[in-house]
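B., you asked whether I could sanity-check this one before it goes into the benchmark set. Here's the sequence:
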Amino acid sequence: MRPGFFDRSVLSRQLWGFRREFVWVGIFSLIANVLMLTPTIYMLQLYGRVMKSGSELTLLMVTMFLVLFYAVMAFAEWLRSRIMVRAGVRLDEALNSLVFKASFEAYLNQTRRNVTEAFSDLTNIRQFLTSNGIIAFFDTPWTPIYIAVIFLLSPFLGFLSILFAVIQLGVTWQTHRLSVTEIEKAAESGNDSYRYVQSKLRNIEPIHAMGMAGNLRKQWFLLHDASLAKAESSLDRQHRQQSFAKFVRYSMQSLTLGAGAFLVIDGKMPVGSMIAANVLMSKALQPLDLVVATWKPFVQARTAFMRLEKLLDDFPERLAGAKHQDPFGEIRLEELTATAAGRETPILDTITTMFPAGKVSVVLGPSGSGKSTLARCIVGVWPQRTGQVLIDGEPVESWDRMELGPHIGYLPQDVELFEGSIAENIARFAEIDSLKVIEAAKSTGIHEMILRFPRGYDTLIGEAGGMLSGGQRQRLGLARALYGKPAIIVLDEPNANLDDAGERSLLEAVKQLRLAGKTVILVTHRPSVLAVADLLVMMQGGKIIRCGPRDEILAAMRTDTAVPV
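And here's what the prediction gave me:
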């Protein structure tokens, strides 16, 4: 059986979950649009009954019903707007977690283009659901009903109304055909300009220090000027189309009134019916006019829907992994191959090896040999790989990340800290256990340094740890990796920015981890850490060329000068 529209994607299924709200909006739209006939009926009563009878009591009763029906109509319109607002908020609440996780997955998989728009796309969809644009789509089906009532007043005006409605629909379609591509291109060009600036702000210090801002500004001007040109062209076309649509609508209303006057002069229609038909024509064309006016938000919402739909389908929510016992720490790699987009040769080429639990393994090799990629594969953050990474014999993908995370300590080569306090960063932004935070800080030798800050562990470090030096950031990142005494610790160039005191603290921390039976994998190019190694792994060209006990590998290196360290 072929799946229906609302079975094709996560986002569509979420929208289908609001079908009851849409039904209620349709019901209240029914009430509001039926009561839109109130002024027409009121005028017919005035000219056909009150004016002839001269009864003030009849006028009073008809007017009271008029006010009552207006109140019910206003209440129905308020209710449908309230339902859509609440539906928009609930849609955001249902999707924000999925979008957040999918954005993380997309960024991890290096598809960063979708990530920058993901949350604004969700906002665009929510805002459109709560705008007048969506209400116009509920009101548009009532256009034929208003025209049918005009037919009851005068078949001639009814056919004229059909002609005018077809013209208005033609204007709407022409608006879509001519503007949708330009709107999408203008939005994409604006996003390109925004992304360019954001990417450069991440490296503001070298840009400022080396006087690169002027050169980069010239490149940004090219993107920005192209964005402005496309936005100007798109807006100019939209305003022309809206002006033409307004001209058509006002002209048709006046022509309807003129045609009605002709029929009155010819004695084929009373004056009240003429005015009522003109009002009905206005009501019939108003939703179509609103559709034209809100076409740009509709196109933007549709584009956002398609982008978000693709993001959620490409990176669906992962099912919770199987429950495991706390890892012991043995890591085995089987035929591990890692690749990257745009690269012909693999970064890691069919690596098979084992890192025993409770041992310190030091990975050595020249730049570009694949050491950092190996570290990322071990902790499960390198997406483009084949083969197996096994933790205690279980594939790393089978572990629930929230379950495995506390048992993994990872210090990347480029240390990333997050806006917040020192304690929050060490505790990985989980509930802070003060004893564990202090223990992790002491194990890396930064406890006294932290206490010298004005607010100690509560000191805010700024965005990306901007108020700290490179060495302080690295030692704080190391403390975060050691927080809670995880079973597996992977450290990528942990001593790159450390002074002598910092390196001594690192070596002492590694010794303590070995005594505690933790599995430590240390990627480095500095020979000072060899003293704490149990195993050495030599890499070159994405392959392991030597692997074994430290003393055996060092002895082999002394007799093989071709092996670079």
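One thing to flag: The chain has three domains: 8-131, 142-293, 331-559. Otherwise nothing jumped out at me.
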